[in-house]
Amino acid sequence: DLAIMCSQFSIILNSGMSIVRCVEMVAEQARTPELRKMLLKVAEDVSGGYPLALSFQNNAPNLPVTFVETIRAGEASGTLELCFDRLHAYYDKQSKIRGKVISTLTYPAIVIFVAIVGFIIVMPWLTKGMIALSNFMTKQWLLLILIILGTALGFTSMKHSVKGKEMLDSFSLLKSPLRRLHSMSAMAQYSATMATMLASGLPIIRALEVTANVIPNGLVSAAIHRVCKSVERGRALAESMGEEACFPHLLVEMSNVGEQSGNLEKTLSVVSDYYNNEVEVLTNRLLAMLEPAITIGLAVMTVLLLLGVYLPMFSMYGGM
C-alpha cells in the first residue's frame, strides 16, 4: 500500500497539481478506509499551512521513519516528486521480497499441516466420499462432458452477439471480481490513445472518435461516444466525462487540470502512466496469489488421495 501510494503521489505531483489537491486525490483512490481517513486529515493539515512531512507524522504515527524523513528532505530541497518516486521503488522492492518469502513457505507449511492432521485423525468419511465421487464420474461422465461443451458453446455465442457482448462488458466493469483491473486497463488505454491522438495533431473531437473505436469494452466505448457528442455541443471534456459513471474521478479531475492549463496531452500521458502502473501492480498481486493457490490445491488433492488409500489400510491393521 505504501508503494502504490508513493507512486500515486509522484505521478500526480509531476502533473503540476497542488500538494493539497494531490493528497485529496490520492485519498480518493485509497484501498482501505483507514488510509483514506489518514490522508484526508493530512490534506486538512496541509491546507492549514502545515508541512507535508509534519502532517504525516502527526496523523500517521505508525508510518516508517524513513518515509517521513524522506518527505521532509524532499520538501526542503524542492524535489518532493522525486522523493516519492524513490520511496515507491524502495517499498515496492520490500513488498516483492516479502511476497516471495510467503509464497515459498506456504506450500511446505500446508503439506506439513495436512500430514499431521492425517496421522492424528482417522477419517473414514474421506474414503467413502472418494468412492462416491468415483461412482458418479463413472456413471455420469457423458453428462459432464455435455455440460462443459454446452457452457463453452453458450459463452462463445454470447461473446459474438451484440446483446451478449454488452452483458459481458457490463459484468467485467461492474460486477466481476476483477472489475478494478478491467476498469484500470480500460482507462489506461483511453488515456494513452487520447494522448497519442492529440500529440499527432488531431482535434479533440476526432481524437475522441478514434479512441472510442479503439477501446474493446463496449460500455466504455459507448460512454466515449456520448462524451464526444457532448463536446461537439460546446461543453468541456471534463464536464462531459463527469456525467459518465465509468470514468473514475481521478481521470475527470486530471482532464480538467489539463484543459485549464492547455496541456491536456501531457496530463493524459501522466494519467496513462499512473493507470498502467496500477494495472501492473494488480496483475503482479494476482499472479503472486495464483502461484501458491495452485500449489496448495495440488498439495491438498495429493494428500487427500493418499489419505483415501492409506487410511482404510491403517484402520484394518488397527483392527487386526
Amino- and carboxy-terminal Cα gap: 59 Å
Structural class: mainly alpha
Note the overall shape.
flat
- Strand proportion: under 5%
Q: What do the pLDDT scores average to?
A: 79
Sketch the topology as an H/E string, one letter per element.
HHHHHHHHHHHHHHH
Largest sheet: none
Number of strands: 0
Number of helices: 15
Radius of gyration: 27 Å
Proportion of residues in helical segments: over 70%
- Uncertain stretches: none
Report what the structure shows:
- With 320 residues, this protein is mostly helical.
- Helix content is 85%, strand content 0%.
- The chain is built from 15 helices and no strands.
- It has helices spanning 2-14, 19-28, 33-47, 52-59, 65-77, 80-120, 124-139, 141-160, 162-174, 179-199, 204-214, 218-232, 237-242, 249-261, 264-319.
- The chain is flat and about 85 Å long.
- The relative contact order is 0.10.
- The model has no long low-confidence stretch (mean pLDDT 79).
Short description:
With 320 residues, the chain is mostly helical.
Explain the layout of strands and helices.
Elements: H1 2-14, H2 19-28, H3 33-47, H4 52-59, H5 65-77, H6 80-120, H7 124-139, H8 141-160, H9 162-174, H10 179-199, H11 204-214, H12 218-232, H13 237-242, H14 249-261, H15 264-319
Features:
320 residues, mainly alpha, 85% helix
